[in-house]
Amino acid sequence: FDATQTASLQLPILRRRVRPPLTRSAFLPRSLTGIRTVDGSRMRLLIDLQGAQSSNALRGIGRYSVGLVSGILRNRGEDDVHLLLNTSFPQRAAELRAAFEPILPANHVHVFASAVSPTSNDDEWCRAASFAARELAISEVGADVLLVTSHFEGFHDGAVTSPTSGIRQAAVLYDLIPHLFADHYLQDAQHRAWYGAKLNELR
To answer: Three-state SS for 7?
Structure first.
């Protein structure tokens, strides 16, 4: 390869493609699109945004979660979208409130308090209390669908995710790398058991 020849190379011209407006079907699983309440009114969607709060907040999962929610909000049309935040992450909760304030009414942001912390993560009472607090917050919204931005959260911090009864649910699944390479990522027996239990919750 002769570096002096690079000046003669021409990059292809990139033409912007015109895309149709996005609808909620571009963001929600196919099984959840077209949902209406019994009387045919708009759908109420609750998004659990702990994927942008916990240990993955500043990583790819956190950035994707914020981007996904932004896209849904900007293209929600008639649908009624609400967010669920965990007050165990007060700084991140405040940042997310401020970020979505221009496009989401303040009364559409709901919170629950988790009793789980890194030091009490193996305390069954704390976990049960946290699950109950989250379920109560979800039930008070009266949503038709619950979307969880990241299901595999909570082993290292106070995030709480679990299946919730009485509501249609969907979760974003990014990858199963820890499951595929368990000998490398799940060497700790407690972590492996926790991951296995979270995986079974999705089945």
So the answer is: helix
Measure the CA–CA gap between 88 and 126, rounded to whole angstroms: 13
Distances (CA, A) of 138 to 96, 141, 164, 188: 18, 5, 8, 32
Instruction: Give the β-pairing of 145-148 and 109-112.
Output: unpaired
- Segment 177-198, tens digit of pLDDT: 999 999 999 999 999 999 999 9
Tokens of 52: 């942008």
Contact 57, 91 (CB under 8 A): no
CB 111 within 8 A of CB 137: yes
Show the beta-strand stretches assigned E in 101-192: 109-112, 145-148, 168-171
Half-sphere exposure of 32 (CA within 13 A, CB side): 22
Token pair recorded at residue 89: 């992450």
| Global pTM value | 0.78
Q: How far apart are the C-alpha atoms of 82 and 79, rounded to whole Å?
A: 10
